[in-house]
């Protein structure tokens, strides 16, 4: 493996770019507070580790090369993202004090934050494509890929964890300042729309 520090620097810039994971973490942090964001992040990190092992074992290459497998995973992920976004928007359409209280103070135990984070990342085949297109750039020609891919995957996951926990901290404290229901509903509506947008974008994308 070569240029490890360059890999770390590039990974940091890529990780902080907004994506489906960021949108889901934002939504669950706003709805379920800090614990919801942490559970969602843990689900995402578990999925990243699985993607790492898939890249190491060569499974990601199979998925990328198989149009059928790629399409199945891609559309499953797209449908799930659209479902999450639509669920948020539907909850905001419900009027009345009871519905508003339910939206504002959800039951953390009933909100599958971990599962939402895990499925959002594991059902995104673009992550597999990213690993297989980004990681080889930092491997010496002619050398093995198993150990370098494993190191890079773990590094990428750890950097993602640091960023997600910082992001959750910021979102939690920003949301604490937004006491008015209208402000929270606006943010939830925007987040739901963004998640649906990412779902549609994923469905329209093709493997390179």
UniProtKB/TrEMBL annotation:
Pfam families: LysE (PF01810)
One Gene Ontology cellular component: plasma membrane
Subcellular location per the Swiss-Prot or TrEMBL entry: Cell membrane
Protein name: LysE family translocator
Taxonomy of the source species: Bacteria, Bacillati, Bacillota, Bacilli, Bacillales
Matching InterPro entries: LeuE-type
Major localisation: membrane
Keyword line: Cell membrane, Membrane, Transmembrane, Transmembrane helix
Transmembrane segments: 42-63, 75-93, 146-170
MF term (GO), any: amino acid transmembrane transporter activity
Membrane-topology descriptor: Multi-pass membrane protein
Superkingdom assignment: Bacteria
């Amino acid at each position: 493996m070569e240029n490890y520090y360059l890999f770390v620097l590039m990974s940091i810039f890529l990780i902080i770019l907004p994506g489906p994971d960021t949108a889901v973490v934002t939504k669950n942090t706003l709805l379920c507070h800090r614990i919801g964001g942490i559970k969602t992040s843990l689900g995402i990190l578990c999925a990243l580790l699985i993607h790492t092992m898939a890249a190491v074992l060569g499974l990601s290459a199979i998925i990328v090369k198989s149009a059928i497998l790629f399409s199945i995973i891609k559309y499953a992920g797209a449908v799930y993202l659209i479902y999450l976004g639509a669920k948020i928007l539907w909850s905001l359409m419900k009027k009345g004090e009871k519905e508003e209280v339910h939206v504002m103070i959800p039951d953390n135990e009933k909100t599958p934050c971990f599962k939402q984070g895990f499925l959002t990342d594991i059902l995104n085949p673009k992550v597999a494509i990213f690993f297989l297109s980004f990681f080889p750039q930092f491997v010496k020609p002619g050398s093995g890929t198993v150990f370098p891919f494993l190191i890079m995957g773990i590094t990428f996951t750890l950097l993602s964890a640091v960023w997600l926990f910082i992001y959750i901290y910021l979102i939690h404290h920003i949301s604490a300042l937004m006491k008015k229901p209208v402000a929270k509903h606006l943010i939830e509506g925007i987040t739901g729309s963004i998640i649906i947008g990412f779902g549609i974008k994923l469905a329209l994308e093709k493997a390179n």
